[in-house]
Each structure stands twice: as structure tokens, then as C-alpha cells.
Amino acid sequence: MHLSLSRVHFPVTTLGPGRRLGIWFQGCSIRCPGCISADTWGPGHRRVSLDALLEHIQPWLAQADGVTLTGGEPFEQFDALLALLQALRQRSEGDILVYSGHSLEALAEQLGQTRGLIDGLISDPYQEHSEQTLALRGSDNQRLSLFTPLGEARLAHFQRPLHASDKALDLMFDAAGSVWMAGIPRRGDLLRLRDLLHSQGHQIQTSAHTSKRR
Ligand code: SF4
């Protein structure tokens, strides 16, 4: 079993409770206007085996409070998603939160097959003209659904408005010196960051310039 992977990171602190393992799938055909993750739209060129991915994340799984699967669109690689969910459930006691740009109704069949494996799901496409007032969501049309007792225990308190104290972004540097962000930026955050860096003589290009986010 292989999957197209964008990246993995630990710890992520902006996409669910605690210090989380984040796994970004590569590939999304939904293409919401205004999405900030346009780098995950294409099919990508990094296909990894599930076994290699599990070996890579094993040290983090032992420390993680939970796992967030996002992208890209995880449900567009459903067989790999299902196998990964089964493996994560066996290896971790943390909660599993999944982001999808598909509606809850459109995912009904797949969710029947993931019963007991997904604790919380944030569904529905990002809408750049909807308000953004809810925790963990990029636009207010997106729904947080809880499917398990663990999801209720760990994620129910995110059925609430955004708080001013909610952290929006994790900033990360990779081995090549590139910086990238995880989380749910507030509207205009990336353009403000670009302007701030530009005023200090730096150049930054983000997909918010051309479009977008979940
Ligand atoms: S917001 Fe999510 S579902 Fe929408 S285009 Fe971006 S990655 Fe795809």
C-alpha cells in the first residue's frame, strides 16, 4: 500500500488538542477558491509505502496526544487512508481528527467503512466569503462531527467560537531551511505576513496571493 504524501510533522499545536502528529496527504481535486494549501493540489511526486511512513512516525506516535490527517484531500486516497487509520488506531491511544473538503453527506459511504477509526471530522469545503468565527475551521460552513466517545471527550470543546487566545499557526523550518506553516490562518494573515517581511527586505510567496483555506 502506497500513498501520495505532502509532509508529516510533530509537534503540531494548532490542528486539535495537545501536541499532535500532523500528516498531510498530497492531492486535492476540490480546489476551493481561496485555499492556502494550493501546494497540495497536484498529485505530487512523493509516494511512500505505508510501512515506511509508519516506521518514520513511530517515535512521534508514542509522544503525540493525537493525530491530525489533512491535506490535500485524505478521502481521495481512500484505501490508503483506511489502512493508515487502522494502523494508527493500533499504535496510538490519541484521538484521530481528519479534515476533508467534501461534505459530510458525500462521505457517508466511506465513513461507514471508517467507523470507530475517526474520532472527529471537519468536513465541507473552505468558503472564502463565509465568516471565520469557529475554532479549528477556516470558514463557518465547515462542520465538526464527533463519532466516538474519545472524540467527544477530546474534541467536543472545539464546538465553539474562536477565542482570541487560540493559536493560529505553527511555524516550522525544514532541513533545507525552508519555512512553512500549519494551522488555520485568520483572514488576511498571510498577506499581512508578506507585507511585514517585504518591509524588512525579505521576499515571500504564498498561495494566498493567487487565491485561498480550510
Ligand atoms: S481547502 Fe482543502 S479541500 Fe479545499 S482546495 Fe484546499 S486542500 Fe482542497
Tag the structure with descriptive keywords:
single chain, 214 residues, alpha/beta, TIM Barrel, 7-stranded mixed sheet, two-stranded antiparallel sheet, 5 helices, 23% helix, binds iron/sulfur cluster
Structure description:
This protein has one domain: TIM Barrel, CATH 3.20.20. Helix 1 packs parallel to helix 2. With 214 residues, the protein is α/β, with parallel strands linked by helices. Strand 8 and strand 9 form a beta hairpin. The chain is built from 5 helices and 9 strands, in the order E-E-E-H-E-H-E-H-E-E-H-E-E-H. The two termini are 27 Å apart.
CATH topology: TIM Barrel
Structurally, the number of domains stands at 1
Helix content: 10-25%
Profile the largest sheet.
7 strands, mixed
Radius of gyration: 16 Å
Q: What is the name of the CATH class?
A: Alpha Beta
The coarse overall form would be globular
Low-confidence stretches: 208-214
Topology as a string of helices (H) and strands (E):
EEEHEHEHEEHEEH
Mean pLDDT: 89
Helix/strand/pairing category? alpha/beta
Overall CATH architecture? Alpha-Beta Barrel
Percent strand equals 15-25%
If strands are numbered along the chain, what order do they take across the biggest sheet? 3-1-2-4-5-6-7
Q: Note the gap between the termini.
A: 27 Å
Number of strands: 9
Number of distinct helices: 5
* Attached small molecules: iron/sulfur cluster
